[in-house]
Structure prediction request, 467 residues.
Amino acid sequence: MHRNLFLPICVLTAFLCSCSLAPKYIRPPAPVPSQWPTGAAYLETTADTLAPPASKLPWREFFTDERLQKIIKMAIDNNRDLRVAVFNVERARAYYGVARAELLPSVNVVGSMYKERIPADLSSTGKSTTSKEYSVNLGVSSWEIDFFGRIRSLKDRVLEEYLATDQSRRSAQIMLVSSVANAYLILAADRENLKLAVSTLETQEAMYKLIRKRYDVGIASELDLRRSQSQVDTARKNVAGYTQLTALDENTLNLLVGCPISKDLLPQELNKVKPFKDIAIGLSSESLLFRPDVLAAEHRLKAANANIGAARAAFFPRIYLTSAVGTASAEFSGLFKDTSATWNFIPLITIPIFDARTWSAYDVTKAEKEISIAQYERTIQTAFREVADALAVRGTVQQQIAAQQSLVDAVAETYRLSNALYTNGMDSYLSVLDAQRSLYDAQNGLINLRLNFLTNLVDLYKALGGG
Prediction:
């Protein structure tokens, strides 16, 4: 009879140990449009099958500039924030190992020696006695048999938190790569602006010397001389300003990289940076669901969902098992004799009757899940906005660059003609002054627009989960 019952009992125990009270996880629908925005500010998106999607394009292939590749590699190896993110993953993995170990019994060997003296007035023989006992036991102490999945739900929660931490590490690396690339481009642009400022200063100083000579012989007025002097001073200020900016840019890049960067790796000018590789945008916004920050938010949502299962299991009985086998003897020499064997088996069941904290804890887990859903949806909305912003810049920046280039050409010709007329005494210096200012502003604006174009490519690559 007992043999006939043994198999069903084992099957029932295995079934109960595999159950879970966590609600079935259903991914919330994405609270964003299924397609990218369209309109005058956006280029028409197509299902490009030639260019790879950003999420599958390694940063080494996207950033084709060899100097930038070396600097990004140095940053990944040395950046302290990324290093902290990596160790956070290691810590989360260790926590998961601890939670998973809760499912297994803890087996210990315990050796003890007990000695007691009983006074005569308490002894049954009327004489004082001394008793002693030696024992060695191998056993399991208070192992909870997880019938209702409480420990498994807690283990699943820690697993999802570990996976979320790993995705956060990936997100931190993407952020670092894009930050280094943008800092590299800003330094290149400021160095090009510095070169423009130095060139403008040389031109202004040459003009000032010419006007000074004309003033000395009475051809130019003092007003023209002072105006020319103001242009020289303005150019000097611009040179000093961009000298400062380039130093600050280098400091920023060194901080991101985590170590000093060799001078030969730093960019000289923006127009010497190699163009980046094309990426496929795609038609659907569903690709946002695979961004590391979105995946991290979803893992946290799954962790909150698993935590509900643990809270539900708290309403059900808990079964603990303590068991040991060993040997005991009054004499140490008899400890390992055949007749000294001992064993014990102590099952314990705890049935909750009333505990108001259990209901409150359950309410907490449900509220935490709703919070996680809102955070997950907010992360998707933020991701959609980042891509939409990058696409809006992408759709208009080329037109701005073309218009600005045309403006530079027109203003440069205006400056040439004004300078020629003034040199021949046919126009006032005020026209030259106005043309000089316009030309410098136009050239400076063109550099900034080209910088905007390149940083937009980096931002779009990052927003689509690249790197």
Observations:
- The mean pLDDT is 88.
- Residues 65 and 273 are 6 Å apart (CA to CA).
